[in-house]
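Appendix B, Record 12. Input sequence as logged:
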Amino acid sequence: MNPGALVKTFIYLISSSLLYPVLILLMLLTVYVIIYAGTFFAEWIERLRLKRCSPHDFPAIIKTGNTSSFISHRVNQFVKTLNKLNVEGNDTEIAIENFLQDTTLNVWKSMDRLRIMVRVAPALGLIGTLIPMGTGLAALGQGDMTKLSADLVIAFTTTVVGMAIGTAAFFFYTVKHRWVEEDIKNMELATEILTQQTETVNYEILQKAPS
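Logged structural output:
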């Protein structure tokens, strides 16, 4: 048996076997983008309803504790947990620092899927284009125009779907990246302010304690 023909057949089989996994992945990514779009626009509406305040007034708002109308639900949840850690008192500084870093890491990790989709979806679309083009050219050589037309339809639609998913993911990623930076900045500011408040209270208690 000709070794060259064997290698070509092997590569052709691998290429052909990838078509349906690629189509299934594109279908799953499409469903994921549609579902993600719902949560994205819900968060967008939530942020549009937040009250605006100047940077000079924001530290005072955090000190009052009435932050629900000014910051996102993610930061509000962070502030609530931060207040609980402040009350507990044991190894508070280390616990707060660990909590801040852990929350920041989880927030950035939530962006990984979008970042991957920006790169993977167009690549899948290109793979889904090239595989049917190979079989389509083979059909053209045999004069099978029906098979050629069907393969070209698959080739062009996978490109369109892959590019559409990548474009949507890039849009979500760009806007969400700005939200994440804003939330992390607010978390760090809240941590600094609430920690200083605790240190001030502890210092006043020590000053009032009988010697």
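The helical segments are 3-17, 19-48, 58-64, 73-88, 92-109, 112-141, 145-208.
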